[in-house]
Amino acid sequence: MLPQRMKKAVTDNPKKLANLIDLVNLPSSLRDFVGQSQISRLGCFMRVWSYIKTNNLQDPNNKNVVNCDEKLKGILLGKPRVELAELPALIKLHFPKEPK
C-alpha cells in the first residue's frame, strides 16, 4: 500500500517510478560493491543502506551522518562523511540518464 503522496507522484508521472525500478547495467565500481551486474536504482540504494547498517557506519552522535569506510568511499566520490539526505543523489550519479 503506497502512501497518498507516492500514489499521486506515480499517477502524475509513471516514468519516475520506472526510473527507480528498471534494471540497468552498473559501472565496474558499483558492480563490485553490489555484487551484481544489473540492479535497479532502488535496489542499489537498499544494498548500500543495508551495508551501512550491517557495518555500523552511522555516526553514533548524529544518526543523519554516515562515516564512510574505504569500500563505501569508492562509490560515494571519496567522501569521508556523507549526510543521509545526500545518499540518493550520490548513488544516482552512477546510473545513466535516459535519452529523451
Automatic annotation (TrEMBL):
InterPro entries, per database record: SWIB_domain, SWIB_MDM2_dom_sf, SWIB_MDM2_domain
Residue span, DM2 domain: 19-97
Pfam families for this protein: SWIB (PF02201)
Coiled coil: none
Domain of life: Eukaryota
PANTHER family with a match to the protein in the record: SWI/SNF-RELATED MATRIX-ASSOCIATED ACTIN-DEPENDENT REGULATOR OF CHROMATIN SUBFAMILY D (PTHR13844)
Protein name (record): DM2 domain-containing protein
